[in-house]
Amino acid sequence: MFSYILAHLLKGTKSKMETDIHRIDNNTLNDVLNRSNEVDPKLYDRYIMNKAIDEPSYTILIVMYCLLIVMGALGNTLVIIAVFRKPAMRTPRNMFIVNLAVADLLLCTITMPLTLMEILTKYFPLGNNLFVCKTIGILQATSTYVSTISITAIALDRYQVIVYPTKESLQIFGAALILLLIWIVALVLAMPLFIVRHLTHHDLPGMGNNGVLSLDFCIENWPVEHGRAYYSIFSLIFQYTLPIIIVSAAYYRISYKLRYRFQAGFVSTEDNLQKSRRQLRGRRLQKTNLLLGSIAIIFCISWLPLNLFNLIADLSPDPNKFSSQPMKVCYAICHMMGMSSACSNPILYGCLNENFWKEFKDILCIEKGTDEVGGTSQKTSIRKKCQKSLLKPDMVTDATNYQQCNTVSSDLTVLTKC
């Protein structure tokens, strides 16, 4: 009798359990089906092809990045060659420009391709390699920091030369020490990205027929909550805010000092020659002020969108919404604007510099056309005029009356030739 009752109870319990399991399975299946309707049907294909961006945005981004990479690499390579091909160009001041060109060359050849790779792919395409994952982050950040710190160092060097001309000029050893310090500071500022970067590996059994055996994701795993947001604020301060304040203040002070010396360097009694020289120096002063203002404005405009995007994305309560395709494209545009500084720097610091521009023309074999007049070419005539002007004093006037004007001329030479 007891065994009959126990069997009946077990049978009833089993029947109830099967009913509950069947109900749970139905609910789970319905939940899965409902959620599957919300999944992008192209998601599986994107993982198979490892493409996070659809056409035509995919191709457009590749073309635009390639144009920036080629232009920036060519321009910065010309700057480096122009300095090292002639000993006369290897001045302490030019070493700062070379350092900036090296950093921008790294931006073009390393940072831009790797960032484009991260934007276009769904998972890490370089395999299960933790060192590569960590190295990518620190290389990208280091080249960016070196570029911005070098721009700041160039502004401070010009400020010291123009505003305090009586102080001892910087020598090669001092310039090399400052450049070493710039790289050390940049590495220290970028080191958190090396520490927090980790690689997650996922094996996918049974996926071999479709070409996907495993997935690797290079992610940032911050040890504290909102760590990424804190680092974004830190980067905004040291990579953007402080440099733009220092550069703007230095160039404003230089412009003010040049304008003061220009206005105080002339007396009221002027003949035609003096007036023409005053007008010439006035035009050079305007060109210099335009150059200094352009450097600060372009630096500000180039890096502002990227820093704002990173800050908003890291402070957002829902960071997943910034992983959609439109947001990825928006991030790519902001990143290209920041990287465009690597293309504009060779122009601002090289092409607008008379000595660099002359070296560029020699490297590229660009010569002015010669018009034969009486057997003498225009190029030879220009060269003779330059030689004559070097033999003449800067102004055919009393040096005591126009000493400050000569100072203005030398200051402008520092900015346009050194």
From TrEMBL:
Annotated membrane topology: Multi-pass membrane protein
Any single Gene Ontology cellular-component annotation: membrane
PROSITE patterns: G_PROTEIN_RECEP_F1_1 (PS00237), G_PROTEIN_RECEP_F1_2 (PS50262)
Gene Ontology molecular function terms on file: neuropeptide Y receptor activity
Source organism, top-level taxon: Eukaryota
Family: Belongs to the G-protein coupled receptor 1 family.
Protein name in UniProt: G-protein coupled receptors family 1 profile domain-containing protein
Species for this entry: Ceutorhynchus assimilis
